[in-house]
Design a protein that fits this description.
By secondary structure, this protein is mainly α. The protein has one domain. Helix content is 77%, strand content 0%.
Length: 197
């Protein structure tokens, strides 16, 4: 009897979602929903949860949303927001070195396409997590509990990573276009977008 892959993905995703919610609830219950520990665990459990789902589903992420917008020209918006300071912090804590070791630095079509796709995955994940943490923050506020750590960790661990992906993606796309590495279904979209950035 052939196994249904969709059923397996659905059940494993449901189990991962339930486990994540249970762990976060337990930490909040015992350590307090306004504590740094809860905010930290919530964010990293959600990151692990999203990573698991992505590995199960391998989304395409071809929406026009991911293409650079005119107001993102040269990344100045993100520079004003302090993206370079955030990048320096990632270098300081060793995160950038870890990512380079994991993904490598090969300059070829396959690796550049993967780097650009990874920015889409990362942005999607942090955007979803930002919205979930924001919802949790409002729920915690309704119970008159402090939400400072939830706000700070959400900005640091989700908002700035989204900024970073949108800052890096136009540079990957320009290199891909320059060397004619763009995949056929992305060429038309990317050419128009890059021309405005």
């Amino acid at each position: 009897m052939q196994k249904n892959p969709f059923l397996k993905i659905g059940l494993s995703s449901l189990l991962a979602t339930g486990s994540t919610a249970l762990v976060c609830y337990g930490v909040g219950r015992f350590l307090g929903y306004g504590s740094f520990a809860f905010a930290w665990v919530l964010n990293f459990m959600l990151m692990a949860w999203f990573t698991f789902l992505v590995n199960q589903m391998s989304p395409n992420l071809q929406a026009g949303y991911f293409l650079p917008k005119p107001f993102e020209k040269e990344g100045k918006l993100y520079q004003y927001a302090g993206i370079h300071a955030f990048r320096k912090m990632l270098v300081w804590i060793g995160w950038e070195k870890l990512m380079r070791k994991e993904h490598g630095l090969k300059i070829n079509a396959t690796s550049l396409r993967q780097l650009e796709y990874n920015t889409r995955i990362s942005e999607t994940g942090h955007l979803f997590i930002f919205l979930i943490v924001l919802l949790v923050t409002f729920l915690v506020t309704m119970h008159n509990t402090g939400t400072l750590w939830l706000w700070l960790t959400n900005i640091l661990l989700n908002v700035y990573p989204v900024f970073l992906q949108r800052f890096n993606r136009p540079r990957y796309l320009k290199i891909l276009q320059k060397h004619n590495y763009l995949e056929p279904d992305r060429k038309t979209q990317s050419t128009k977008s890059i021309a405005t950035t």
